[in-house]
Amino acid sequence: ADLKQFGGGRPGGDIFNDATDLIPSTLNYRASSRINKEQFREALKDVAEVLSIVPGQTEALIKCVQCHLNLGNFQEANAALNLVLDPAIRKFYAEKLTKTEDQHVLILDFISQGHYNEAVNQIILARKTFPQNLNLVLLQAECLAMQLKIPQAEQLLNSNDNEESRRNAIFFFVKGLCYYYKNKLNFAYHKFRKAITLALKNRQQFSRVLNKADLFKKKTFVMTKALSDAENERKLENKENALAHYTSGLSIDTKNKKYLL
Q: Is 26 helix (H, G, I), strand (E, B) or coil?
């Protein structure tokens, strides 16, 4: 995380007169109001401005931690927390951050084992505390897509289609999954490629998605060829050859109903 946002301004202290002291207080008040309204991105802008005026101000740093936690930005939350000087306050939020990260790890563990119902239950529980957490929303959409609940997955994606989500590799990976299981393989292939491109820019955050998107991109390519070959054989009325290609496609992914037709 870029720590300049937490302390890149001029030093605080006695240089402030009554007028300029009012600016951080006003911004902190507005940030509190925005946090209460779950407008965490807007609140972050306010606290960043406070910290450019008064580097290291505890109140602004804590608000920064709260916003990043709610948005699922664990690295940024931890970076802000490390700048809090009060050990009691730092310990309190460190425990909260650890608990949240542990829950996130549990969700990813369920997903990696294919236990999507258990993962969704944990995600729903976590979203009660952090309803604006984009990563939780996208992970829930991923679980739904892997369960072939495509309309529900697409509904989540469409309701969270914004500038931030389009910088997130998970968003395009799940888009690809939805197209993949609707047998729109060309669209799926391009979405998986986009997910890989974004994941390569931030391997630490998206290493899991990078591997899965690459796997599905390869599956999509092979399945597209198998389907094309099967259709060509059907047109030539070579039913046995067509069946062989369909069987080949089905062996790649048993969930794909196209090959059962």
A: helix
List the alpha helices (DSSP H) in 147-202: 150-159, 169-181, 185-201
Closest by alpha carbon to 210, among 224, 223, 196?
A: 196
List, as own/partner pairs, every contact residues 42-46 make where C-beta atoms lie below 8 angstroms and the sequence separation is at least 24, other chains included: 43/67, 44/68
Distance, CA of 131 to CA of 112 (rounded, Å): 23
- CA separation, residue 98 to residues 4, 33, 125, 150 (Å): 24, 26, 16, 33
Give me the numbers of helices (H) and strands (E) for the chain, helices first please: 13, 0
Contact of 167 with 73, CB cutoff 8 Å: no
Q: Which residue has the tokens 């916003």?
A: 67
209 within 8 A of 174, measured Cβ to Cβ: no
Write down the residue that tokens 């009060």 correspond to: 86
Residue 72 amino acid letter: G
- Contact assessment for residue 224 and residue 188, using Cβ atoms and an 8 Å cutoff: no
Place of tokens 């389009």: 166
> Per-residue pLDDT tens for 194-247?
999 999 998 888 999 999 999 999 989 888 777 766 666 677 666 666 566 566
